[in-house]
Each structure stands twice: as C-alpha cells, then as structure tokens.
Design brief:
By secondary structure, the protein is α/β, with parallel strands linked by helices. Helices cover about 35% and strands about 15% of the residues. It has one domain: TIM Barrel (Alpha-Beta Barrel). Helix 2 packs across helix 3. The relative contact order is 0.13.
Length: about 350
C-alpha cells in the first residue's frame, strides 16, 4: 500500500481508504447498505490485510449508527487504524444541533468519540460550509479540540474555493491550525474539482480526500449503452442528490473505460480509481463496498499504473468545457498554466 502526505502536513494516509456510508442501514441512507458489526469486522479485516488503515465516517451516516458499527469493528485494534469522521449537518431537532458553531462542534466531537469507542479522531472534517458561524469561532473551537488531544488534523468537505481560502486566511492571521484535507467529489464524470479547488490545493497545501470516485455508481461497469439501471444501485435511493450526467457523455466515458479495460485486463472500477490516483493533490480515495467482492475488486486499483496514452484517452473522453471564468483562464497559459500551477 502506498502512503501519501496529507496536504502540507506531516501526516500520511493510504491512497485507498474505506468509507462507512454502507454501515448501519438506518434512516435516509439505508439504501446505501445495511452492514452490521459482524460483516463490518470482516471488511475491516480485509482492509487491514491490504494496508487500508484509514476509515471514514460521519455523524449523519445512519444517524450515527455507522460510527457505532465502525467502533465495534475496530474494537481492540484502535492502534492499527486511522479514523476520519465529519460533522456540520443537522444531527437532531434541537435548535443548535447543526452547523459549525462552538456549541455544535464540541458536542458533535464528544458524541462521535463515544460512538466510535475511542478517545481521539485522527482527521476531523467539516461536512459542509456554515455561512452563519464566523470562521474565527470555527477555527478557535477546532484549535481547542486539537490541544485537548481529541482530534489530530482538520479538513473540510463540500466547500467552494472562496470558502476554503477565507478559512485558510483566518487561520494564518490568528495562528490557528490550517485545514490540510478537502473531502471532495471527484471522478471521471465529475471533474469540476479541477477548475478551482485543485489549483487551490496545490497552492495552499490541501490534499484531496476523494468521495464517490465511481460517480455515484455510474462507473462500476454495470451501466452500458442501452442497458437498464442495476436493481441494486444507490441511484435509486439518492436520485434527488445525484449530480446530473447526460447519457451520451456518460456512455462516451464508459466506452473509453471499456477500451482501456480491454488493454489492461483490469475492471472498469479499477481503471476509474487508478486514473484518480494519478491526478494532482489526490491523497486518498474513499472506496465503499457492500460486500467482500466489491471491496477486493476496488483494492485491485493499486500496484500498477495506467500508461500516459491510456490516461490521455480517458482525459479526452471525459473532458468538458468548464464554467466561466475557468474557460477564459485556460487561454492565458503564459502566466497561468491552468489548472495545475505549482
């Protein structure tokens, strides 16, 4: 297993990490999966056997049940794993049980520690941007939690570029800890991350923790031209939040993946994951699995690399015209070699 530095920090993480969105099976995310402690323990066993030591969760996954199941699965071997979790979204009906206020974050961390059965979280991320809480309050709270030894490193998720840059500026101004991770949506059919967040990550030393690397199940190899949606797919239960993708664009990317699969004798998911591992700023990719078969297939994405020609083929198939001002900035390569200025 390859380990990479997480942003501009001294912390290293495996290039593949395991997401626990399928743990618990309660509430609105039940359609993702309903893995309980016994099966989760087996999945953790397989991960550790292959060097996948980072496990990602969130307080809203199955209403906290995902953290509980993860805690049960790692019991007795906390020293062998790294834990990442998130909070910000509403976790209860009580008025302050939402956002990134000192009140909510302090209680969210304490609750997560209890559910996980541990005394510290290695990477804690804000699950969304809270425009109503001043960044000074957010960062001073996280600073206190770090000083108390309850969290190690901090990151964000689903932030716009200016959200993240403003927070980093505040951190530098007051000497607060900086965000070193950006848990972001990024895939062959979702490349908007490259427009602004990738250059920001390069410039500011923020590593990408990639979620939904297979484009909400579209790049599993089960979707083909003229085919039907698989009976088991998270697209059935999360249609309201799945990023829209035009059919012809999707099929163009899938055709290219199939062509590379034929050349490499690898599976479509393995190719899609390997492509991501060659993108700038990517520190780790969060993979999920309902069962051992899916997990083992995803683990086959490492230990080899696509050729430059194969990467170029996938780049071309998935290329899209970015929104303004990014399409305009691409023309000024003399002083702004978009998008990967270092």
């Amino acid at each position: 297993m390859e380990y990479r530095q997480l942003g501009r920090s001294g912390f290293t993480v495996p290039v593949l990490s395991f997401g626990t969105g399928t743990f618990g099976g309660k509430g609105g995310l039940a359609g993702w999966g309903s893995t309980q402690a016994e099966e989760a323990t087996r999945l953790v066993d397989i991960c550790l056997e292959h060097g996948v030591t980072l496990f990602d969760s969130a307080d809203i996954y199955s209403g906290g049940a995902a953290e509980e199941v993860l805690g049960a699965a790692i019991k007795g071997r906390r020293d062998k794993v790294l834990i990442s979790t998130k909070a910000t979204f509403r976790s209860a009906k009580e008025a302050n049980a939402v956002g990134s206020s000192r009140y909510h974050l302090t209680r969210a961390v304490e609750s997560a520690l209890k559910r996980l059965g541990t005394d510290h979280i290695d990477l804690f991320q804000l699950h969304g941007y809270d425009a109503m809480t001043p960044p000074e309050e957010v960062l001073s709270t996280l600073d206190g939690l770090i000083r108390a030894g309850k969290i190690g490193y901090i990151g964000v998720s689903n932030f716009s570029g200016w959200h993240l840059m403003k927070a980093l500026a505040v951190a530098d101004r007051y000497g607060f800890p900086r965000y070193v991770a950006n848990q972001t949506y990024y895939s062959l059919i979702g490349r908007e991350y490259e427009w602004e967040l990738l250059p920001l990550g390069l410039d500011q030393g923020v590593g990408a923790v990639v979620w939904s690397p297979l484009g909400w199940g579209r790049l599993t190899g089960k979707i083909r031209r003229g085919g039907k949606l698989p009976e088991q797919s998270r697209r059935h239960t999360t249609a309201d939040i799945v990023p829209p993708v035009e059919d012809e664009y999707l099929y163009r990317v899938v055709d290219a993946l199939d062509a590379v699969a034929e050349e490499t004798q690898k599976t479509v998911p393995q190719i899609a994951l390997n492509w991501l591992l060659q993108r700038p700023t990517v520190a780790t990719i969060v993979i999920g699995a309902r069962d051992e078969k899916q997990l083992k297939d995803n683990l086959g994405a490492i230990g080899w690399n696509l050729t430059p020609e194969q990467v170029a083929k996938l780049d071309a198939a998935s290329a899209r015209t970015p929104a303004y001002p990014y399409w305009h900035q691409k023309q000024f390569v003399e002083r702004n070699p978009f998008p990967t200025r270092v």
